[in-house]
Design goal:
With about 325 residues, the chain is α/β, with parallel strands linked by helices. It folds into 2 domains: about 140 residues, Metallo-beta-lactamase, Chain A (4-Layer Sandwich); about 150 residues, Flavodoxin domain (Rossmann fold, 3-Layer(aba) Sandwich). Helix content is about 40%, strand content about 20%. The strands form 4 sheets. Strands 8, 9, 10, 13, 14 and 15 form a 6-stranded parallel beta sheet that branches. The protein has a 5-stranded mixed beta sheet with strand order 3-4-5-6-7, with no helix packed on it. Strands 1-2 form a two-stranded parallel sheet.
């Protein structure tokens, strides 16, 4: 804008505030609202659809008639750079994973808004040949596929997966995690089980796994009458995502006072999970007996999840 200061900017009223706030500049703003249009030549028009809080106050989608391109702003995007620009030019499974990761980490808390906005855009009945998101790969091969994914993701999404997230100082809590995973699989051979040490994993990848799970098991040893800060920080992040319809339980080792599991329970409740039971505690490094209890705890958790799902269905 320094080089082209007289170029008009068509944007929402909120975008004027954001741009003035960020750049302290008074440019040639033209405020537009949902349904407004702007002729751009050759009989084509830009049609605007405000998308406040998806995911910034100023967000807006723009539709180009004639070429049928939906410039979708943050929706349908990914934090992903590849050598190809369009979805038929990149690895499909990586692209879908990155799109889910973006949704899980950025858009999850806005799922109710997104559901209403998808309905609004569907009601406009626009032919869409390309979805050009503001970052990531553009969707031109069957762009409806990512709209369909969003309509699943914004409805308390979950797959048949249980994710175990833990941290440990001396590996005791890790051994509990592994025994719990075996127990789950002994009771339910179809469920996908994934285990992550949160201090050795990408937090945003693990958050994506939580998003796609029906249940989560959180583990930490007791440390200074609390839990390890890596788990506390991760559960704080999980809470912000406002996931819905997921089950949870806690586990961990301790040496004497053993507050860890109770603290994890409270954090899981606070993050909106439906907690199944009071969790599993083991003293010091788990011996064979403690590992067998962890196995049984995992098997019971898998059965309780299945029963709760049946009761809720
Ligand atoms: C720095 C430190 C602080 C600890 N603080 C507590 C505590 O406050 N209460 C308690 O019950 N155990 C405490 N423990 C004991 C651990 O919880 C216990 O050794 C546990 O088995 C460790 O589990 P891990 O093998 O998963 O790291 C502490 C251990 C360490 C190393």
């Amino acid at each position: 804008m320094k080089r082209i200061p007289n170029t008009p900017i068509y944007c929402t009223a909120n975008a004027v505030k954001s741009l003035k706030g960020q750049y302290q500049a008074d440019w040639d703003f033209h405020v537009v609202k949902t349904g407004d249009s702007l002729p751009v030549g050759n009989g084509k028009e830009l049609v605007f659809v405000e998308m406040a809080m998806i995911h910034w106050p100023d967000s807006m989608a723009t539709y180009l008639t004639g070429d049928n391109i939906l410039f979708s702003n943050d929706a349908f995007g990914q934090h992903y750079a590849a050598s190809g620009l369009f979805n038929d030019e990149v690895d499909r499974s990586i692209l879908l994973y990155e799109a889910m990761k973006y949704y899980a980490n950025i858009l999850s808390p806005l799922s109710d808004l997104i559901r209403r906005k998808l309905d609004e855009i569907a009601a406009m009945n626009l032919p869409i040949d390309v979805i050009a998101t503001s970052h990531g790969i553009l969707w031109r091969d069957n762009p409806a596929q990512i709209i369909e994914k969003y309509s699943q993701w914004c409805r308390a999404y979950r797959e048949n997966q249980i994710t175990i997230v833990y941290d440990t100082m001396w590996n005791g809590t890790r051994h509990l995690a592994e025994a719990i995973a075996e127990g789950i699989l002994s009771a339910d051979k179809d469920v996908v089980v994934k285990i992550y040490n949160i201090s050795k994993s990408d937090q945003n990848d693990v958050l994506t796994e939580v998003f796609r799970s029906k249940a989560v098991l959180a583990g930490s040893p007791t440390h200074a009458r609390g839990v390890l800060h890596s788990m506390a920080g991760f559960l704080y992040l999980v809470k912000d995502m406002k996931f819905k319809g997921k089950y949870a339980a806690a586990f961990g080792c301790h040496g004497w006072s053993g507050e860890g599991v109770g603290i994890l329970n409270a954090m899981l409740d606070d993050a909106g999970f439906t907690r199944l039971g009071d969790g599993l505690k083991a003293l010091w490094s788990p011996d064979d007996e403690a590992r067998r209890k962890a196995f049984d705890f995992g098997a019971k958790f898998a059965r309780d999840c299945a029963a709760a799902e049946t009761a809720g269905a």
